[in-house]
Every structure is written in C-alpha cells, then in structure tokens.
Amino acid sequence: MIRNVKRMSAYVLTAAIAFSGMSITAQASGSILPGGGVSLALSNGNKLEDITTDVPTMPIQSIMEWMQEVDEDVPSQPTEEDLFKNLVIAQVTNYVNVRSLPSEEGEILGKLYNNSVGTFIQEENGWYQITSGSVTGYVKAEYCVTGEAAVEIAKRVGKRIATVTTETLFVRVEPSTECSIMGMVPEADDLLVLEETEGWVKVDVEEGTGWVSTEYVSLHSEFVQAESKEEEERRLAKEAEERRKAQEAAAKKAAQNAASQGTQNSVPAQESVSYSVSGGSEMGAAVAQYGLQFVGNPYVYGGSSLTNGADCSGFVMSVYANFGVSLPHSSSADRSQGYAVDGLANAQPGDIVCYSGHVGIYIGDGQIVHASNSKTGIIVSNAGYRNILAIRRIF
C-alpha cells in the first residue's frame, strides 16, 4: 500500500476548513496497517505539493491565489495548537466506523483507525460529523476526541517532518553555517524534526542529532486519516498483487542464481560474528540472511555496491535486487514500498525498517542489518536504537 501525501501551508489549511474541511495522515492498529486514504500534512509557509496522482486533490489552489492577492488583509497565521483543536482523533482499539448518518442505522462509508485524524464539522446527537481523506460522515463521539483534548494527542501521534529539497543537504552540529558538518542527506529524504528555531531545524539523522537550514527543507506535520470502503478494497487487492509479483520475481531470481551457482555479489560471512534469522516467511528470512553476508563492508554515500560500498537505501535496494525486486534508491521512498506493518513487535525478517533519513532490513530478535555510516560501514544494530517512522513488508 502506498500512502498519498499532500502538503499545504497552515494559513491555507485554515481557509480550507472554512470552505469545507481539510484532509490529514497516520497509523492504525493491527499488524498490517491500512493506508488511510489520502494523507495530508499541516505545514508552515510551504506551497502545496501533491506527490501522487491516484487521488483527486482538494480544490484549494484558488484559495491560495486569493489569499496572496489580499495578503495585507490576511490575519496572523493560526498556531499549531489552534489547528489541532479542529481535529477529531479516534481513540479505539482498532477502528470506528464512519457512517452516512448520525446513527447506527447509517451506512458504513469507511473506517477511522486508532489515532487517525479527521476534521471536525459539527456535533449532532452524540456524533461528530467529520471529513477525513475521501470520507465525509459521522463517527460516534464516545470513540473520538476533539477540541482541547485533541491537542496533546495530536502532538504525540503526529510527526513533524522536514523533506530535503536540495540535491545534497549538510547536517551541522549547531544551527550555523560556520559549524562543522556531521553528515549529509540526499534530496527528497524525510527527516524527523526535534526542534525548530528561526531559520533552522534540529533533525534526527544516522550520525546523531544535528541542524539543517529551513531554506533547503519543506516542513510538514504528518497524520493518518480515514479509509473508505472502496479504498480498502483497492488497497487489499493491490497488496495481494504486489506480494504475488514480488514472490514470482524472487522465485525467478532464485532459479537464475541456482543455475549460476548463486555466486554473484556474494561474500563469506564474517567468522568472528554470527547472527541467526528466524521466524516470518521463507522469502523474508532469505532476504535477511543474504543481507547479513555483507556485514563489515564499507558505507559509501550514494553507493549501491554490496562489496565496495553502499549507503543505507543503496544497501536495501541491492539486497532486494538479488531477489528480483526493484526498490528505489531513497530511504524516504522506501516508506511507501510494499505494505505497512504496525510496530516492531509485528516485524518479520526481511521487513524494511524506515527511520529519519535512514533505512535498514529487519533480521529478527529486534535487530536490523544496515549500512550505517562511513565510520561503521554495514553493521547489525538493535532496531529500536532510533525512532521508527515506518515498517514495510515486501513479501
């Protein structure tokens, strides 16, 4: 399942609410997560950027143009807390149904999963009317929060993300161009924001926490939203088809490797350290075991060679290429590959574990194999060593 993300500025979001709502992003309960229709980001001062084509966009461009024309009359931008008060956030074990009427007799239009978000329209007889993704309908108020109660939950379940907008972005030890560079991240990578100051944001990268200039990133807050019945059906069918294709590609590649004795791109495992792979699917375990062969090999920024050097996404891409599966050379894009897994407790060997500006392959027992950085090379680490943004399963 591929999540669809939209980004818009905070003042436009407020206008969109006034003109009939907004849409928003996030995560749900269950070991395999649904997509949640369209995901939207609340951002500050950034233009609308629609990065998908399979879902119609909200008609807000005219609002943006109008507000630019009358900029001198525009009131001050609302705070993030003001925006969060307009949200309706599900607080349930799994999901709450979105119905066509404020009654149990209403037709089920979709599902609002736990911690997923909608926009409040009105309250009617113990029901909230909301807009979330492509779904507009009613949810039982007892299963959701809004207003002041939604503010703290929104801060907890949402993620503040900085998306890199330049070819190579330097991460510095302090918020100044005079400070030393601690790392580099490529264009389109998503970085988890820890702190914001004037002109700079503190982000989480593989080398640690550092600062990047807001001139070279686009900021937004991600949540997850409702999924309509039709979207759920399409997602399940698409996931089944993607699994089938991946399994067929892997079987074909395995046959080719067997015919050539499977020696290409292979190196002996290190004798001093051994790691076991157990659980999950046979294909996923094979991916994890294959990736472990390259522990100790170098990290090279922008590289994709398992023997001569790869960066994090290049390593994941090349490991999966051995099984006939084509993945992008981008840790950010890896967040939309395959389908979602809910939490580390449900991860299986072969799953892709995505972090802020980083990605690795789960091998089981709470560990990942990954191309970490230029100092350590390809190593095995505890999967929970950093905040996990997403876990994706290919097979």
Automatic annotation (TrEMBL):
Q: What is the lineage of its organism?
A: Bacteria, Bacillati, Bacillota, Clostridia, Lachnospirales
Q: Where is this region: Disordered?
A: 247-269
Question: What GO terms describe the biological role, i.e. biological process, of this protein?
Answer: proteolysis
Q: What is its EC number?
A: 3.4.-.-
Q: Which organism is the protein's source?
A: Acetatifactor muris
Q: Where is the composition biased (Low complexity)?
A: 252-261
Q: Which residues form the SH3b domain?
A: 159-221
Keyword Protease attributed = yes
The molecular function terms of the Gene Ontology recorded here are:
carboxypeptidase activity; cysteine-type peptidase activity
| Name listed for the protein in its UniProt record | Murein DD-endopeptidase MepS/Murein LD-carboxypeptidase
Enzyme category, top tier? hydrolase
The answer to keyword Transport applying to this record is no
The NlpC/P60 domain extends over 281-395
